[in-house]
Write the structure tokens for this entry.
Amino acid sequence: MGPVVALRGPDGPESSSDASPGRPGRGTGLLWLAAVGAPVVVAAALIPWRDRLAAADNALILVVVIVAVATTGHRWAAAVCALSAALSFDFFLTRPYGSFRITRTSDLVTELLLLAVGELAARGRTHREAAGEGRRHLSALHTVTELAATGRGADQVAAEASRQLVALLALRGCRFTRDDPGLAARVLPDGEVQIGAVAWSTGDLGLPHRGVDLPVRGAGAVWGHFELVPEPGTRVPRELLVVAVAIADQVGAALAAEPDRVPRRR
């Protein structure tokens, strides 16, 4: 039996988290309530000042509400909030009051702009989050690469890779072993997961709950395996698995560079 490096996620194998990717959080209901109700409440609160404030000023106050919801990153909630804000603006703050009739072109333009703000704000948040995720993925790969480049032992590189894989893929645990774990599910070099000859959609279903084999390759040979223990119900995009393959390849390169190491198979 070869060396084994085993790591568990921060919550241990028996824990579950409402914040796990792919599961609705506890705050989802409150978010939708705020998306629908907050613009109504704010618009109603502006009724005493609607004849003293310009329509543009009232709209700007509602924009603040839309942006606040959009910063949660939930695009549909932002869209619903923008729709609620546009309807509330029309009903409470434009003449004829208490009606959804639109009698002025400027009011129609304002309502359309409110709808656009929700979409633009949500997209901006989504793009910022995507950029942040990309930096974190690059950082995980860079950490393992630097460790291998400094000449650290392959076992140390494998241990750090296990830690990075647990964080990257939101795993319950990760185990590196020189021996084939005998798992049916395997990560291919392109990031696709297959069970036998069948492709598994990790972006929709998450990783297979019985575990996944991530082969460690280097110099044209397989030097070991990471046994990935997933968190049930956590969706894993294929792009993350491509990063995981790159991390495993760094471990393979470190193992191949040690003269006393023998690959398991070509």
The chain has seven helices and seven strands. The longest strand covers residues 221-230. Confidence is low (pLDDT under 50) at residues 10-24. The chain has two domains: 4-16+133-256, 28-129.
